[in-house]
Structures are given as structure tokens and as C-alpha cells.
Amino acid sequence: MFANLTNGLDFQAKALVIRADRQRVIASNIANADTPGYAGRDINFKEAMSSALGSSSASGALSLSQSSSASSSDGTNHARHIPLQSALGSLSNDGSAPLAYTVQTQPAMDGNSVDLDHERASFADNAVHYEATLRFINGTSKTILSAIQGQ
Length: 151
Known about the structure:
Layout: H1 2-31, E1 41-42, H2 45-53, H3 84-88, E2 100-101, H4 116-149
Antiparallel strand pairs: 1-2
Helix pairs in contact: 1-2, 1-4
């Protein structure tokens, strides 16, 4: 009985952890926007949630946050490239999500791959999703509490 009550909250709690991890990664990208040679990172939320839930729909291979038509499902675009899966691994036991490199949209002379406008938009979008997840958890817990109190 108790497991039925917590299943929905467990899903949202895992989503909240992944959203928080993604927010930290995006903030790191923004902070390093002027660092020469810095490669932007991101978390693929869909694959991270599939891994966290132990879903069989997860391919196990990481894809880039903005997939390009030239790359294959394992994050490589050439047979001799090293796949991201072997370098980064999948969702770890502590719940932190796997990282992938972002696709460079604007070439830079210093080798930095961070597009500041895209990162700001991703930051705002992720913040909205994080807030929505918090509101859902709050609403669900209030509903459970009112049911327990018999109101």
C-alpha cells in the first residue's frame, strides 16, 4: 500500500535530482564561456531518466544533447572515434547523470564550444522544469497528507 503512494513521488524525486545535476552542468558551461579550449557538457534528460528508472527503453549509449545528422547512436561520427559510453559510463550508483559533450554551434578561435545564448536558454528551460517538478511533489504530498488526516 505504501509503495503505491510513493511510486509517483519516487519518479518525481529522480527527475528532480537529474534536473539539479543538469542545472549545475549548464551553470558550469556558462561560467566557462570564456575559457579557451573548454568543451561544453550537457545531460540528456530522457536517457538519464530511463537509466534511473531502470527502463529497458534506454539504449545504454549516450547521445549528444543536440544530435547532429552525422553522428550515430553511440555519439561517434566515424568508426575510429571513441564512443562516449566507454569514456563516461552510464548513470552512476549515486544518482548522478551521465555527461555528454554538446555540439558546437558557433566556431571559436580559442576552441571553446560554449554558445552562451543557447546555454542561457537551456538554463531557463531547465529551471522552469525544475520548478514544475517541485510544485508537483508539493501538491502530491499535500494530497497524501490531507487523505491521511481525513479532510
